[in-house]
Amino acid sequence: MLAAGVTAPLTQAKPTVTFSPFQAGKYRILALVFDDYETLDLHGPVEMLGHMPNAEIKLVATKEIVKSYQGPRMVADCLTNQTYDCDLLLIPGGLGTRTLVSDIALRQWLVEQVTRSQNVFTVCTGTALLAMTSVLNGRKATTNKMAFEWVTSLNDNPQWQPKARWVFDGKFLTSSGVSAGTDAALFWVKHLHGEQEARRIEALTEYSWNQDASNDPYAVV
Amino acid sequence: MLAAGVTAPLTQAKPTVTFSPFQAGKYRILALVFDDYETLDLHGPVEMLGHMPNAEIKLVATKEIVKSYQGPRMVADCLTNQTYDCDLLLIPGGLGTRTLVSDIALRQWLVEQVTRSQNVFTVCTGTALLAMTSVLNGRKATTNKMAFEWVTSLNDNPQWQPKARWVFDGKFLTSSGVSAGTDAALFWVKHLHGEQEARRIEALTEYSWNQDASNDPYAVV
């Protein structure tokens, strides 16, 4: 046995050691941030999802510090130089997406990151970043109603929904503009933990939850 | 004249040079952040106020990086080692306030910062930090309805309002829990720029604004 060990090929592959920003056993929420992300697209869902049992939220970006469209700066917990196993990938929108849809490296990262994400949740024009890949093809999806024409022009293959506060199809939860992400986040709490838990978080945050996905005051039809 | 200048006392006071984090001519919003601030207390108002014409939002903290209760970290633009002229001082709440109400240095900073702030806007238990000073004494004020008993126990002298989504009295705008801050922020936009501007931002963010301060679904009476 010893001799066999000594003569084992030196080129044998080592197990890949992958850094994870998450603690073991947590519900792992990975949020993509970038310059000119829209503040509430990110922080509305972070507020609601962050009160779920056992949730852990980490930020991923192409660089260590990013600045929101409204000014305040966030610190990334990990970088897009690798992908990460997670339970929910959260993608906010904002003016920053207008240039990011042309970022080939980020697009490639997204395709790989989506495969390592149990579910994917886009808010507002965050959907545009997914629309530049083929992952939404054939799926029902929605986006910011003020940017609906632009986002839907990027890819004809998703089944775009012009009247929906949010849409859940396959592994993808896509929501309408900005505040719709907060309502969709409470839908996600309900989906995972039941209505009582969603109502607990709604009350804890003194929120008025629009709990009906078809109640879309900003529909474009 | 020259002789008089030469013999001028060397102990003459120099003008104080004060750093300002703001650009000249901006509507200067300074937001206090601290560990375990509640995400939406800060970012709901940042979203709405950040769309006002000419607004600039800067973060102030006792240290360079602070972590929200929900996990993500923010970068401070300036520190509480000095005070700053600003148009609006924004104070979010959160679990972090439970210890901060005993922080004597922060309390002293707040008293000085309030005098250099044209207006002061508290969200949720951010009101507790002001209640530890005397600046709200005699003023109508409100706070998070789930923490109402605690906050109001800190100081008998404000006229505490158990049923109010927000209250504006003197230079102080105080709001109820978490999401109420977002509604109060749109009230502030209306106060400064008129209803049309508030409605523009409401639509831009696909929000459903509770525009009636007396419509408080979480009132404790």
TrEMBL record, chains A, B:
It holds the Pfam family DJ-1_PfpI. Residues 28-184 form the DJ-1/PfpI domain. PANTHER family: ARAC-FAMILY TRANSCRIPTIONAL REGULATOR, THIJ_PFPI FAMILY PROTEIN (AFU_ORTHOLOGUE AFUA_5G14240). This is ThiJ/PfpI domain protein. The lineage of its organism: Bacteria, Pseudomonadati, Pseudomonadota, Gammaproteobacteria, Alteromonadales.
